[in-house]
Amino acid sequence: MVVQLVGGADRARARALVEAQGLSFEEGVDDLVGAFEGGALVATGARAGDVLEMIAIDPAHQGGGLLGELVGELVRRGLAAGHQGLFVFTSPRHAQSFEALNFRLLASQAEVALLEYGGRFEAWVEACRARLRAHAAGGGAAEAGAVVLNANPFTLGHQWLVEQAAARVEALHLLVVREDRSAFPFEARRRLVEAGTRHLPNVAVLDTGPYAVSALTFPAYFLGPGAPVPQIQLELDLTLFGARIAPALRVRRRFFGSEPGCATTRAYNAAMHRLLPRWGVEPVELRRVEAGGAPISASTVRAALARGDVSALKALVPGTTLAYLLSPEGRAVGARLSAAPGRHG
């Protein structure tokens, strides 16, 4: 029987079992469960939000039904907590074991496979298609372009990139990252993108749903010491986009801005050039627009907002974004940024 592990002693046993399998034990999970035999913990697993992790079974008890029992209990708890679906990141060699438990493989690269339980991806795709059908233009386009952006917040640089991309395709899908780990909440970011692109009739604003693999939610507990986690994460993210999202939304070109400053973004751009053509998606890198001799960036906007520099903001953001930044809601974000300098969200 799989039971919840709550006491310190049981958590210590779970840690020992997880680490004995060469995995890393992660604190802060929502559920930690396990199975005992003869007083010894022989299997354990955890759930953090909508992600299952730290699934470990003593070698002497592998090959039976314990994996199904563990995963079944974690799924039950996740659904009861209100999640519409659950994810698991695992080694590709273990993917089939989860597929046998009604998980669907979404993406896999050399080190990591991502699987989903619950059919949420299909529901997300249909919601996107419905929005495109309802859009004034582009809903019936045979092929489309895409821009994926966080827009934290939406700047003149973002607007220029979108305008350039929209001029090159019949229909352009703007996928705003839904994950709410930015200085500006998702709904505000989406509103600003919609307002700043309303003059472009072939542009439709969508959202990524949970299908942008964030470094903040990507669990690396099963990767060995020294594993290039950022590289693995971005490759999995692009594999998911190229193998699943692009064909579902008929995307044939992905547009993005050049990155002279941030090494992480430069690495992501390089990976797009290398990986996206595998799935028939053309990567299109456009030189970023500048203001005052430097590329416009959302981080520069956040810094100006934090110090209350309205004149700087006027040179960096569209009027629609400026109006928001000067509103009580926007000024509240500025106050938080001012109180926590250095935040990159």
Characteristic key phrases:
Aminopeptidase, 345 residues, 14 strands, globular, alpha/beta, 2 domains, 21% strand, seven-stranded mixed β-sheet, Rossmann fold, 12 helices
SSE topology:
Layout: E1 2-4, H1 8-20, E2 31-37, E3 40-48, E4 51-57, H2 66-80, E5 86-90, H3 95-99, E6 104-108, E7 113-117, H4 120-134, E8 144-149, H5 156-166, E9 172-176, H6 186-196, E10 203-207, H7 229-248, E11 251-257, H8 263-275, E12 282-286, E13 290-291, E14 294-295, H9 298-306, H10 310-314, H11 319-325, H12 328-339
Parallel strand pairs: 4-5, 8-9, 8-11, 9-10, 11-12
Antiparallel strand pairs: 1-2, 2-3, 3-4, 5-7, 6-7, 13-14
Explain what you see.
Strands 1-2-3-4-5-7-6 form a 7-stranded mixed sheet, with helices on both faces. Strands 10-9-8-11-12 form a 5-stranded parallel sheet, sandwiched between helices. The protein has 2 domains: 2-118, Aminopeptidase; 122-339, HUPs (Rossmann fold). It contains 12 helices and 14 strands. It is α/β, with parallel strands linked by helices and 345 residues long. Helix 7 (229-248) crosses helix 8 (263-275) and helix 9 (298-306) packs across helix 12 (328-339). Helix content is 39%, strand content 21%. The two termini are 42 Å apart. The radius of gyration is 22 Å and the shape is globular.
